[in-house]
Amino acid sequence: MHATRKLWTWLAVICALSFAVLGWVGTEIYLTAPPIPKHVVSSKGTVLFSPGQVQRGQEAWLSAGGQQLGSVWGHGSYVAPDWSADWLHREALALREVWAQRDFGAAFDTLNAEQQAALNSRLKTEMRRNTYDAATDTITLSPDRAEAVQRVVQHYTALFGADPSLDALREQYAMNAGSLTDPADLNALPAFIFWSAWSAATDRPGETDLSYTSNWPHEPLVANTPTAGAGIWSIASIIFMIAAIAGMIFYHSTHAEEGDPKPPKADPLFDLKPTPSMKATRKYFYVVIGLILAQVGMGVITAHYAVEGQSFFGFPLAQILPFTVSRTIHTQFAVLWIATAWLATGLYIAPAISGVEPKYQKLGVDMLFYALLFIVVGSTAMGWLGTLQHLGNDFSFWIGNQGLEFTSMGRIWQILLFIGLLFWVTLLGRGLMPALKTPSESRGLIAMVFLAALCIGGFYATSLTWGKHTHYSMIEYWRWWLVHLWVEGFFEVFATAVIALLFTRLGLIRASTANSAIILETIVFLFGGILGTLHHLYFTGTPTFVIAIGAMFSALEVVPLAMIGVEAYRNYQRSQAAPWVQAYKWSILCFIAVGFWNVVGAGLLGFSINTPIALYYMQGLNMTAAHGHAALFGVYGMLGIGLLLFCLRGLSNRLAWSDRLLAPMFWSLNMGLGMMVFMSLVPAGIYQAWASVTKGMWFARSPEVVHSPFMETMVWLRVPGDIVFTVGVLCLAWFAIRLITGEKRKQSAHHPIGVVNQT
Questions:
Q1: Of 396, 413, 438, at which residue does a domain stop?
Q2: What is the pTM of this model?
Q3: Counting Cβ atoms within 10 Å, is residue 164 exposed (0-12), middle (13-18) or buried (19+)?
Q4: Model confidence pLDDT, tens digit, residues 443-456
Q5: What's the order of all strands across the beta sheet hosting 132-133?
């Protein structure tokens, strides 16, 4: 007991210190972020961009699709360019051409090597010179550079407008004509993109060869190459990771855990009768399956747009379902169905653990369900409508689609979801409170479940921290608080604690062992995971020390995975511990699959792009997508499905339950995901990485590469994996339908539901 209290103390100290550092980093980002000028002018007095245009351009880009339509500073989708890299390259080429025509009367490509070298050297000096004047809040450009900027402005206004000469390019970018219909937005958009490119190439005050984005993106024309810090801290992080893994292995070898207890002769939960509120969670799980189907369907459409940017096998689907909408739904639903599965699991287990059904608990569960359904349907419909009807920046931010990856719903819906999550925490707390008040060996696990739930509800507040006019660097800072800490952090702690609690209730794990193991695992995970958030912020206009902190602590996120094989094997042994455990076979196999994908998706693929030097070349390429698919579905998705099956087992008539469809479901999902990742996304990512290293980020994201025969072949090679994966999803859906119809048949045969149950 003393040892457990000590672990709780360590957990509290680590969390307090980590969040203190993360908060301090946020303050420094705010103070040192790239300045947003009021004026951008030429030295001759020509006004290029007026006050407020940079921020309005940011709003315009986000309302046009934002991170669902290309990316800025590497964050966003992968079919359209990274706009900051694209602008930087176009401006550099335009400026060089201005000089070549004026000084030599010929195109740059026709000049001799000596003349080209002279212009290239001049270009680097010009593009890296910081001419921002804080006193007047003005960026002053040379007349030649101003001319180059105006040429690029014309390209962007034509592209985001409806110029028919760029229709072919728009199709390659999977964007519709007239992405921006408001002339003021169309004029302001280039200001934001220019600013993002200017920040990427201009030296910080008092520095040489170090831009506000730490020289990202790779662009040889302007001497944007990796910093020394990116290389040094990458090496240091790998050494640190190896040392930490060695330390963990040593710790486990010298602190042998107690063996698992002898399993009970019969299922301890065999006779558990679901309470009314537990039964009310059943509809959540069926909605989860519906959301999975919708997400997969949108994923198929979104992937196809990488080949036909505005059509689906010739049908002009983009007119009613553009890429920005399909990708928004695909990414948003992924988070929503996983979250819903876990929320429902919490509501299901609370009365089962405490043995008490709080007054009006079922009413609360029902109210929360319909509220969440309203939020999902409402946010999706309004985001879709806003995109199609071009209802303006205010509508997009407040009601429609904010244009931010994984957290795109309008602010009104975010507020409602935050309230819903707090209500969920209240319901969960009411259900768990009797168990928390009663001394038991499992009380530590129950407390961890509730604390994780508090963090899930509370930390969603980070989605409310930015506004329409917030600096883009700060938006990214807070967005990754939500995506990394909320989804990748506290949800995982919650799910791990729930699984451990379920195993203890089944008598497969000793409660004392589980208590210590979960707290220790949470310490190890959060020690690296909280400050590991910063690996998303290396190149988003942050101070250089972000690279150091992010690299070292994110390397620690890999450490817990070193022992995952041992844990997976022990879970397999538990599945064979007694004949009755076979009732939970597929839930346990899902938990084992989580371990596998944790190693592959989060470990192998995650760390392959995690070090600063690797991410410098691969941020915003298909290696990121490979990591995202393998980790998000492989880890969190399989966790959600495992918990879904466990709960449905307890909520279903034993005689109506059949495992026949679960085997093809399980193997199809895992095999399909593996095929999708390793036959398509990884080869595509490696090909793009080569292009990024050799020529620059602009080239890796250009139509020349994205629509090359190799890349389009890789897109088509997703089809076999997608088909196998879809078979798994359909098996899950058919399983649910058969479970419902089977129970109806049992009811008609006078076999009441819930007389004999298995949890």
A1: 438
A2: 0.94
A3: exposed
A4: 888 999 999 999 99
A5: 47-49, 39-42, 138-141, 132-133
